[in-house]
Amino acid sequence: MQDQPFDPDFIFDISNTMETKIKAVKAFSSQFDVSDPGDEPQTYISDPAFFDSLKARARHLGHLAGFTFGEGFLYSKKPFPVKNFEFLLNTSPKR
């Protein structure tokens, strides 16, 4: 889902944790942000530019929900189960 368009069922605000997310992904240094892959082939995620697309996608999803950065999720069970509407009262989307 990272590089494919999709309509998320909900978007979680990750504005305060975006840099932590990037650091966590970079912890897998043999796969992400590889400056010298050696004998290994360069891949989409090994290119340092991958993090530009990671932030751009989070910024786009965040914009859709009224956040600086957002993480989109698909809920596999349809319909989305809701016990109350409190989650709607605590949001203020830009649209």
Roughly what is the average pLDDT, rounded to an integer? 83
Strand content: 5-15%
Shape: elongated
Report Rg: 16 Å
The structural class is alpha+beta
Domain count: the total is 1
Q: How are strands sequenced across the largest beta sheet?
A: 1-2
Number of strands: 2
Poorly predicted sequence stretches spanning 5 or more consecutive residues: none
Protein architecture, described:
By secondary structure, the chain is an alpha+beta fold. The chain has one domain (10-89). It has helices at residues 18-26, 50-65, 86-89, and strands spanning 10-13, 70-73. It is elongated, with a radius of gyration of 16 Å. The two termini are 24 Å apart.
Topology (SSEs and partners):
Blueprint lengths: L9 E4 L4 H9 L23 H16 L4 E4 L12 H4 L6
Keywords, separated by commas or semicolons:
alpha+beta, 95 residues
Short description:
This protein has 95 residues and is α+β, with helices and mostly antiparallel strands.
